[in-house]
Amino acid sequence: MQSTPSVSSTDTKPHYELLDGLRGVAALAVIWYHIFEAFATSPVDQKFNHAYLAVDFFFVLSGFVLGYAYDDRWRKGMTSGKFMLRRIIRLQPMVVVGVLLGVVAFIVQGCEKWDGSAVSISAVVLSLVLGLFMLPSLPGTLPEVRGNGEMFPLNGPSWSLFFEYIGSVLYALVLHRLSNRALKCVVLLSGICLALGAVMNISGDYHLGVGWSAGGVGFLGGFLRLAFSFSIGLYMSRVFEPVKIRGAFWICSAVVIGVSCVPYITADGQASVMNGIFDAVCTLAVFPMVVYLGASGFTSDKTSGRICEFFGNISYPVYIIHYPAMYLFYWWVWSNGYTFGQVWYVAVGIFIGVILLAWILLRVYDMPVRRYLASRLCRK
């Protein structure tokens, strides 16, 4: 059962309100993960350690919601081109804002790589163009302006949007055509590969926080994360039958936050396969369960409904615009050698400020632009 539906400007099918709210909870957890990155020396001592798994949660949500919203439309005239146009309208306006904010942050930092070497204006412009068109930079090339291997050095989290687009293309061309049995095979095969990647140390630190770089096994790791999570979300949308559960939003939110807060799992202060096992269990079992329970629940009062709506609305803007602020925060903290205890109030201010800016951009830019593009380019 679901509550009173909320409808976007490019989609007339009701949304699962609780899933929208849970997406917002995960996006806010990611901000704190990135804030604490400023004070970590390795994944082992990273606070709010496992919030990088929010990306896997996002992929499960995306597969579930897209399957629910579009699976029955292909028989009614939906084409791959129309579907991808809708996805571009939904995602791209905020991608543009994110990379533009990234340029501003990079200029404020002095157009320097993390090692202090100067970066030419031509390199920045090239990185900007690639970012606007969601084309990744390769490590060591001219547009990889920060020098740490990021696919999208002006706005790092765009890497997950890059894989989100890959998932959308695969859904449009292949996955929506698969039978449930064939899709189940995709889920099982990709799940085995992902589990092996986690426990065989594909990242070098026994975690699944890979995909942000096109170097080494970065692209492979990111694709494995997408392949399993997106496909199991899609499969669940086809076989979904709600279960009875009360307080689903609060229970599921507690699980998402709880997973995010778990420290790196190690017995001796070194990278441990136990952490890889934890990541695999969360991705293969916990997050699909959370999405299933979230889709089964419903809001029983106006307050929880408004919370879910607000969190859902700001989830994507918060995620795609927060990292330029992180770049500046890192630069400031590292330049002065601050500890979290010295600058906690700045971290809280950044957290609140990002939410406020995301809400403003949603209202004055993202929603109006998407409405305009949908009215001009999409026919009902």
Structural summary, described in words:
The protein contains eleven helices and no strands. By secondary structure, it is mainly alpha-helical. It has one domain (17-95, 159-377). The protein is globular, with a radius of gyration of 20 Å.
As a percent range, the share of strand residues is: under 5%
Number of helices: 11
Q: What are the low-pLDDT stretches, counting only 5+ consecutive residues below 50?
A: 1-10
Alpha-carbon distance between the termini? Answer: 27 Å
Q: Return the average pLDDT rounded to an integer.
A: 93
| Beta strand count | 0
Q: Supply the number of structural domains.
A: 1
Order of helices and strands: HHHHHHHHHHH
- Biggest sheet overview: none
Globally, the shape reads: globular
Helix content: 55-70%
SSE class: mainly alpha
> For the CA atoms, what is the radius of gyration?
20 Å
Keyword list:
mainly alpha, 0% strand, 380 residues
Could you give a quick summary of the protein structure above?
Helix content is 65%, strand content 0%. The chain has helices at residues 17-37, 54-70, 80-108, 121-132, 158-173, 180-199, 218-239, 248-261, 273-296, 302-336, 340-377.
